[in-house]
Amino acid sequence: MDTTAFITSLVTSLLIFLFLSLLYVLLARRPKNYPVYYPAVLIREEEGKGNPEVARLRTPFQWLSEAWRVTESEIVSFAGLDAAIYIHLLDAALKILSIAALFCLPVLVTVAALSDDYARKARPSTGGSTTATNSTDATFSGLDKLAMGNIPERNSKIWLFAIGAYWLSAAVYIVLWTKYRRISKLRKSVLSSGARPEQFAALVRDIPRSHRDTAQIDAFFRRIHPDSYERCIPVGDLGGASKTWKAMESTKAKLDRAQAGVTSSNRPHHKTGTLGLLGPSVDSVDFYKEKLREASERHKSSKTAAAAAPPGRAAILVFNNPAAAAACGQCVYSASSAGRWVTSPAPEPRQMIWGNVKIPWYQRYIRQAIVYTLVALTILFFMIPIGFVSAFSTLDKLEKLVPFVKNIEKIKVLSTVLQAYLPQLALIVFLALLPTLLLFLSRMEGIVSQSHVERAAAGKYFYFNVFNVFLGITITSSLFDTVKKIQKEPNSTVSLLGAAIPPAASFFITFIALRFFVGYGLQLSRLVPLIIFRIKKKYLCKTKEDIRAAWAPKDFSYATRVPGDMLILTIALCYAVIAPMVLPFALVYFAFAWIIARHEALKVVVPAYESYGRMWPHIHTRIIAALLVSQLAMLGYFSIKKFVFSPILVPLPIATLLFALITNKIYYPTFKNPPLEVTGLTKEHIPTVSSIVTAYTPSYLDEEHE
Predict the structure, then answer these.
(1) Whether pTM exceeds 0.70
(2) What string of DSSP letters covers 599-647?
(3) How far apart are CA 137 and CA 144, in angstroms?
């Protein structure tokens, strides 16, 4: 990417962000837009916990001040511990990159700028032509000359970059260690702050066929826990009741909409055929009343059948003591097979995936193997379109395949804009198609909680990003030129692919800028949710319930946001030493992410579930994986620079693996299972057994739905 296209990309992105920020200031002031800009505040007001003044934007920068001043305890109270953990990820990224920038920007950038390897290679040789190995140097911009690529081979200045590699690694170790310790204390504080149904319950799966009876399950666990065990809640096949409940709720909503259209002079009618366009016309109110009666009868029958069905392979175990419940979730109960009486801590009731609870252990292993295979194939085949996109990251490369592009290059403004945005926009579109598929695949593994599904999908998305986006773009950014040179000089494959690393930095800088200027500009302005809300309210909403559903707030989409942020952090870690000018843009990205996430936690998001920080070990592991990729990339690039002392970097990946092992041994067990120390602190507001049973009864089995 040339300098003009790079500057055009940054300036255009900045102007878009300023425009979207202005839109937010103007639109958030209007009371009729409050449901879009302050949904969490409105819900807290309904519950008597909110302050109406919070929802009034009096000055343009009020949201910044409020987001800056909100405390961690308020974030936990408003948006949950999971939201606070997500913000800790952004804070950790800011601290790591800030520490890295203290050395890399003033030292490494200065050293690279004072070198002249690119200029020396581009100078004609004594025969009047450039060297054969440097025909792509014309693609190097001024930004590339501030990177390690501008350091001559075997030069002693490379020692400073080696020091930078150790500096970066130390920053990651220090920040992650302190964060893990801080988050562990925060998790302990939240877990000990009050009693919740899941603290008094455990999940047992793979119950032997000979014990699939409520009395036998009770007898088995009461013999082992005579003083603390209360009862079990068998989990059978609830699919029929779930389907009839959804049909009944849908019919109720249609009846409410029909009744909302009744006036003194008119009653709504509709046709009963395909799409409401064919068939006889009927009175909508009378029609849906009859349909609701039929749906209610079917649901009653389904509930009766579910209640009469024998207990299945799983059950929720209820205890009167949280320590006993926590111990039960960590114990091995079968002396003959690990596939029998498999217990685990019970997930929070609202995030239970009841359809997966009854899946037997062997099916879970088979499903997991199939899903991992599908994910591997997805990563493999997505490399094809992403490689294709990155190969056309400049118009001059596109011109080699499509000759008429030469005419576009003659239009200066159009060619500059396309050069700046074409590859980044294409990449973002590809990435937007993936999360839904990964969530579906993770759910198909047989995971029983929504938070675990999102963590699993986030992990798959992260590795997809690393292999396809980061490595794919880096390696294939000079695909056409590289392939031709490999054909001429087969022995130069490694050096030619390694030489593609520094030029890809300009692509990633514009990619990061596009993400934080345009992406966070849209996120702050909430322009898309506002448009959707207005369309639904005007054309689709007939009742108060419809309107409320149109603006109902959601939680942080961890399955997409965490991998997206981890991609930026991976890019920053990998280029922090090789091309340090990535750091300022990554710092701005995480600064935007941090302040906007705090703003959303205060006013926008409402947690759909609470996993009590179980996402952090996942985040910690992925940051270590990103650092490991960075260290391996530096080791390879130092070798390409023919640095004799490249083996000095070999201890870094080893140290990273040891650090991962140590932190996993020290901290992870306290996240995997509820610590007994914490369960002993819960003494007040102990829930009754009946309230726990009610909490773990699916809503479609409640009496109110009869």
Answers:
(1) yes
(2) HHHHHT---S---SSTHHHHHHHHHHHHHHHHHHHHHHHHHHTT-TTGG
(3) 10
Find out whether 500 and 482 touch, Cβ atoms under 8 Å: yes
At 282-312, the pLDDT tens digits run 888 999 999 999 999 998 888 888 777 777 8
C-alpha 552/C-alpha 651 separation (Å) is 51
Q: Which of 99, 95, 107 is nearest to 167 (CA)?
A: 99
Residues 416-451: pLDDT tens digits? 655 555 666 666 666 677 888 899 999 999 999 999
Hey, which of 132-136, 338-342, 651-655 has the most confident mean pLDDT? 651-655
Which ranges of 465-614 does DSSP label H, i.e. alpha helix? 471-476, 479-488, 493-499, 504-514, 520-525, 527-535, 544-551, 558-575, 582-603
What DSSP string runs through 137-150? GGG--TTGGGSGGG
* Alpha carbon 55 to chain centroid, angstroms: 28
Cα gap 237→29, rounded to integer Å: 50
- Read off φ and ψ for residue 229, nearest 5 degrees: -75, 135
Would you state the pLDDT for residue 492?
47
Q: d(Cα 397, Cα 402) in Å, to the nearest integer? A: 9
Measured CA to CA in angstroms, residue 313 lies from 27, 448, 656, 686, 695 at distances of 53, 14, 42, 29, 20
User: Stretch 55-79: mean pLDDT, rounded?
Assistant: 85
Question: What is the DSSP code (8-state) at residue 540?
Answer: I
Question: Of 536, 558, 659, 633, which is closest to residue 82 (Cα–Cα)?
Answer: 558
Tallying the residues shown for the chain, one arrives at 706
CA distance 101 to 355: 49
What DSSP designation does 347 have?
Answer: P
SS3 state at 345: strand
pLDDT value, residue 615:
94
Burial of 410 (0-12, 13-18, 19+ CB in 10 A): exposed
Question: Tokens in use for 190?
Answer: 């939240």
User: To the nearest 10°, the Cα dihedral for 469, 472, 474, 475?
Assistant: 180
499: Cβ–Cβ under 8 A, 6 or more apart, which residues?
136, 149, 478, 640
User: Are the C-beta atoms of residues 503 and 476 closer than 8 Å to each other?
Assistant: no
**37 token code pair:** 């800009």
Alpha-carbon gap, residue 524 to 20, rounded angstroms: 8
Alpha helices by DSSP H, listed for 261-283, are none
Q: Find out whether 571 and 427 touch, Cβ atoms under 8 Å.
A: no
Distance CA 111, CA 123 (A): 21
Asked if 614 and 673 touch (Cβ cutoff 8 Å), the reply is no
- Is residue 10 very low, low, confident or very high in pLDDT (cuts 50, 70, 90)? confident
How are strands ordered across the β-sheet holding 201-205?
229-235, 314-319, 201-205, 342-345
Interval 154-174 mean pLDDT: 93
Range list of H helices, 28-144: 34-37, 39-46, 62-69, 72-79, 81-103, 110-113, 117-122
- Whole-Å CA distances, 434 to 56, 356, 457: 37, 23, 10
> Hunting for tokens 């207005």 — which residue is that?
534
CA distance 336 to 189: 39
Residues 6+ apart with CB under 8 A from 287: 258, 270, 272
What number of other Cβ atoms are within 10 A of residue 119's Cβ?
12
pLDDT in tens, 126-151: 554 444 444 334 344 567 778 887 88
